[in-house]
Amino acid sequence: MEAYDIGGTWTRAAHVEDGKILRKIRKRTEVDFLQQIRTLSSRLQAFGEAERRVVLVPGPVRDGTLICAPPLG
Question: Is residue 36 within 8 Å of 54, Cβ to Cβ?
Fold first, then answer.
C-alpha cells in the first residue's frame, strides 16, 4: 500500500506492507497535487506496484474534489 499525506508545507509518502513502513519520503507541497502524487509514487515503486493508495487531504472532499483546504491557503 502507498499512503500520502498532503499538508500545508510537506507532502509525505510511504510504502507500507504488513503494517511496516518500508520506505518514506517527503517533498514540499506543490499546487498540482495529482502530479506530485504521481512523482512520489514512481519513487516508491522500487518496492513494487501498490495494490492500494490512500491519500489524506486537509479538508472535506465531495465527489472526488477537495472542497476547501484552509491550511493550504
Answer: no
Which residues lie closer than 8 Å to 60 by C-beta, 6 or more apart?
66, 67, 68
Residue 3 above 90 pLDDT? yes
Residue 73 is predicted with a pLDDT of: 57
CA distance readout (Å), 24 to 4, 30, 49, 54, 63: 10, 18, 15, 14, 29
pTM over cut 0.85: no
> Residue 59: which of 46, 47, 70, 45 has the closest Cα?
70
Calculate ∠ Cα 32-25-1, nearest 5°.
85
Contact by Cβ (8 Å): 71, 63: no
Q: What is the DSSP string of 56-70?
A: E-SS-EETTEE---G
